[in-house]
Design a protein that fits this description.
The complex is a heterodimer. Chain A is mainly alpha-helical. Chain A is built from 17 helices and two strands. A two-stranded antiparallel sheet of chain A has the order 1-2. In chain B, 45% of the residues lie in helices and 16% in strands. The chains are: A mainly alpha, B alpha+beta.
Chain lengths: 593, 345
């Protein structure tokens, strides 16, 4: 083993060039930064799109010159067309779900933290890790390219239900734009699988001496379980996409039967569009946990460190991560209550779905209890983590409504759903991501982010986030369907005009406030104040490695682990933290597991 | 040119922000002392106070929204099963509102109450089996109740008892971007139909060789007439892509899937004329008409509506059909004015 390590290092000392250090890097720390920056670029695109369609929703008749500038022929005279509205909604969803909150979040922090927190020199396979990033980059490029196709980008919603997505006659976005969407997602799935396999193998095999599974920080548990979810569910989406490609391009009828579109009778027979939905949501539901679990992991770590208290109920936290993960595979049907599925099947999915509330409640209570009698250091990361707990509770609770098939009848696909999933998985996950960036920025760049800008960023974001999504519950309860270009075709919804304006104002202010974050990030990366090695007085191993990035992370021996990661404010210790590599003192009782 | 200026101003703003930060950092450097990015007790105090204020604001704005948005909500259910759904809704809503109103204030209050202080030390508490047991079991028990209640309601709604009367059968046909209703006629049986039979005026693809189809009545207006107090079974078909027939006033929704048929049975209980006299509706219509008058639009009269609730293409946002619930006599009169399928051909 040792000789292998040496030759590995040896290799790299000789050939450090610009290309293999910054571009085709196999170093997990560099790859993590690549994921983060790519994710941020995609995030800017995704958020900007949402601001554009918020303009349309709040002021449907008004002309905005910026729409013509950005959308060209689809924004002629400053008013967007219904087609491009649907395209914006579709690509916004796709980008935020997959590119920002899956690859951007998991890719960044799994890469950064798995080797550093378990005490490994790097990922199990640096080469696969590099490939994972570059497949992600390629899929991002293809997705962005699809925005410039003559017939417009994919517009069938991020769930791309056929036949709408399968028939170019049904909408222009189902032409070339949809083909590129599918190609991009296929590449994305390859990236995700390469990454996930690597994470799993690394966590299982490369833990340093003393790092038993029960001493793993909750971040690692979350990333580990997330990777397992990804490996088991993404291939199903891949096959769904593959069959859709066949239906679109090679005349098969997996999802199509008895269709007449634009006056043309299609010869397809025997397929079922519902099959696609089953395949899609078999990934689609675990996917929301692929998004939220890493955010939970980050939050657990940030809250414990900054509360100067052990995370409350470590075992329960690990258990609830696993329970959520297992349940997430048997609840997908709750997205399909209204497809005409057998009511008995609906009952089963209602039952399994509502069960998820139990481990979720345990997590929320444990976070709150971790704050109790703590000594809270309210850093921007800590504020975002507490914000996550708040949004997770708010959004999680409405899941009890939507998961209940009888109640879903009247709010299915309305703004109630939009409010629910944006709060519970959009906001919570993005807050987790912000918390992670603020917290581990010193580890990534050896510098500190500017605290005051961080506070401003948090407050504007937090207030605007609730301002955007909370009122949507009421719109959904009033019966307003989602994905409507405008609600002015129904006089019944005319009394929502003011709410729409309010939401859009919050959205625009909140969106623009992200400039504070971007500025803080890039400015601090280059000119921020130098950070000390362990600025948060944290216990986990990543802070025992030198500030400057070494290939192999630690000079000399790898650290040995003697305790769990949450010995904060332990009685009888001098400091209010005890890093994992500090041996158990004589007479000290080992706690935590 | 405008765009150029905007970009220029944006760039200058960022540069200015950078310089301000720089000046601030240099000035703290001159004064010496710790890294200004370290969190001080004062920061904890300010942020903790802001957090508790945010908690108050969250709860206050919740109540404000409940109060001021109550007018936009749907009126009481206009169908029999809808009452059960609304009861389940109320129970679930009360439950989640109570949990919301307990947990959120506690979260924000703790953030304030335990804000950090250099002189303090946190309590070391890794777990507490009793507490954790309690907050696993309590949600489990409450959820068990909610699940049983929910499943009972779902079962009642989806498997209605038709033993006392035969439901009125109506087909609702969806295509980009409109709805058509086909009544089963005097035999109350729909004739076969398939998109392959669509030709000329036979726009629903009804099988002209099927004798059951002769007395079917296809509406010429995008209107769905329903007699009050009679169970109807809506059978859904789609010509092209997936649509969803959403009748929010009746708590009814079902996808229309090409290549297969779906259905939903319910009993309308309030006529259109009666719902217009309902207090909540009068208030809502008054608000809406004030808004419409300000925009110079026609006054609006309240109607039940069927809308498309599954993304289906460019005009998805305007795929609608008026629903009219009327007395049996009015319904019969309307029906007698319609042509049957045989007469149409």
């Amino acid at each position: 083993m040792a000789s292998h390590d040496e030759s590995h290092d040896h290799d790299h000392h000789h050939k450090v060039t610009f290309w293999n250090k910054y571009v085709f890097s196999e170093d997990h720390k560099m790859i993590s930064k690549q994921f983060l920056v790519t994710g941020m670029v995609m995030g800017v695109i995704g958020v900007t799109m949402s601001l554009l369609f918020r303009l349309q929703l709040a002021w449907p008749e008004k002309s905005w010159p910026i729409l013509e500038t950005l959308l060209g022929k689809w924004g002629a005279d400053g008013v967007m067309t219904p087609d491009i509205y649907l395209a914006l909604v579709t690509i916004h969803g796709t980008i935020m779900v997959f590119f920002v909150l899956t690859a951007g979040l998991s890719g960044t922090f799994s890469n950064l933290l798995i080797p550093l927190q378990i005490g490994a020199r790097d990922m199990a396979s640096g080469f696969l890790n590099m490939l994972s990033y570059w497949f992600f980059f390629l899929s991002s490029v293809v997705m962005v390219m699809s925005l410039f196709v003559e017939s417009g980008p994919a517009s069938a919603g991020w769930t791309i239900y056929p036949p709408l997505s399968a028939l170019p006659q049904a909408m222009p976005g189902s032409g070339m734009g949809m083909t590129l969407w599918l190609v991009s997602m296929a590449i994305f799935i390859i990236s995700s699988l390469l990454g996930s396999l690597n994470y799993i193998v690394t966590v299982l095999n490369l833990r340093t001496k003393g790092m038993s599974m029960t001493r793993l920080p909750l971040t690692i548990w979350a990333f580990f379980v997330t990777a397992i979810l990804g490996v088991l569910s993404f291939p199903v989406l891949f096959s769904a996409a593959l069959l859709l490609i066949f239906d679109r391009s090679f005349g098969t009828s997996f999802y199509l039967s008895d269709i007449m579109v634009s006056g043309e009778l299609l010869s397809n027979a025997g397929g079922s569009p519902i099959l696609f939905q089953h395949l899609f949501w078999f990934l689609g539901h675990p996917e929301v946990y692929i998004i939220i679990l890493p955010a939970f992991g980050i939050t657990s770590e940030v809250i414990s460190t900054n509360a100067r208290k052990p995370i409350f109920g470590y075992r329960a936290m690990v258990g609830s991560i696993m329970a959520i993960a297992i349940l997430s595979f048997i609840v997908w049907g709750h997205h399909m209550f209204m497809t005409g599925m057998n009511p008995f099947l609906g009952s089963v999915f209602t039952f399994t779905t509502l069960l998820i509330a139990i481990p979720s409640a345990v997590k929320a209570f444990n976070y709150i209890t971790t704050l109790w009698k703590g000594n809270l250091r309210l850093t921007p990361a800590m504020l975002f983590s507490i914000g996550l707990v708040s949004t997770f509770i708010t959004g999680g609770l409405t899941g009890l409504i939507l998961g209940d098939s009888a109640l879903d009848i009247n709010v299915h696909d309305t703004y109630f759903v939009v409010a629910h999933f944006h709060i519970v998985m959009g906001l919570s996950a993005i807050f987790g991501m912000f918390a992670g960036v603020y917290h581990w920025f010193p580890r990534m760049y050896g510098r500190r982010m500017i605290k005051s800008l961080g506070y401003m960023h948090f407050w504007i974001t937090f207030v605007c986030a609730y301002g955007v999504f909370f009122p949507m519950h009421f719109m959904g309860m009033a019966g307003l369907p989602r994905r409507y270009y405008t609600n002015t075709s129904f006089p019944m919804f005319d009394d929502m005009a003011d709410i729409n304006v309010l939401i859009s104002v919050f959205a625009i202010v909140g969106g623009i406030a992200q400039v504070l974050f971007l500025f803080n990030f890039f400015y601090s990366a280059v000119r921020g104040r130098k950070s000390e090695q362990n600025p948060w007085k944290s216990n986990t191993l990543e802070w025992t490695a030198p500030v400057e990035h070494l290939h192999g992370n630690w000079p000399g021996e790898l650290p040995t682990v003697h305790r769990w990661p949450y010995d904060y404010s332990k009685p009888g210790m001098e400091e209010d933290y005890v890093p994992q590599n500090v041996p158990i003192k004589e007479g000290e009782v080992e706690t935590g597991h | 040119m405008d765009t150029f200026l905007i970009i220029l101003v944006a760039i200058l703003a960022v540069v200015a922000l950078g310089q301000i930060v720089r000046i601030f950092e240099l000035s703290t450097d001159i004064k010496g002392g710790a890294d200004p990015n370290d969190v001080t007790d004062k920061d904890n105090h300010i942020q903790g106070t802001l957090m508790v204020l945010a908690g108050v604001a969250l709860v206050a704005s919740f109540f404000w929204m409940v109060y001021s948005y109550s007018d936009i909500l749907l009126p009481v259910s206009a169908s029999e099963h809808g009452v059960q759904i609304d009861n389940l809704w109320d129970v679930s809503m009360w439950l989640i509102v109570i949990v919301f109103l307990i947990t959120q204030p506690v979260l924000f209050y703790f953030t304030y109450k335990y804000r950090g202080n250099k002189a303090k030390k946190a309590v070391y508490m890794e777990h507490n089996n009793t507490l954790e047991f309690v907050w696993t079991i309590v949600p489990a028990v409450v959820l068990a109740g909610l699940i049983i209640y929910g499943l009972t309601t779902w079962s009642n709604v989806m498997n209605p008892d038709h033993s006392d009367e035969e439901p009125l059968v109506i087909e609702v046909f969806a295509k980009q971007f409109g709805w058509t209703a086909r009544y089963a006629g005097s035999d109350n049986q729909l004739g076969n139909a398939n998109v392959r039979f669509i030709e000329g005026t036979n726009s629903l693809g009804v099988d002209i060789n099927d004798t059951k189809s002769f007395d079917d009545v296809i509406t010429q207006m995008p209107e769905l007439h329903l007699p009050v107090g009679r169970t109807v079974t809506l059978k859904f078909r789609s010509q092209d892509v997936i649509h969803s027939a959403y009748l929010p006033h009746f708590r009814v929704q079902m996808n229309c899937v090409p290549g297969t048929s779906t259905h939903f049975s319910f009993k309308p209980t309030v006529t259109t004329a009666d719902i217009r006299k309902e207090e909540h509706v009068i208030q809502k219509v008054k608000n809406i008409n004030e808004i419409r008058a300000a925009k110079g639009e026609e006054p609006y009269e309240y109607d039940y509506i069927l809308l498309c609730n599954k993304i289906c293409g460019a005009a998805h946002y305007n795929m609608q059909m008026k629903v009219i619930v009327e007395t049996q006599e009015e319904f019969d009169k309307w029906m007698s004015e319609q042509k049957t399928f045989a007469e149409m051909l």
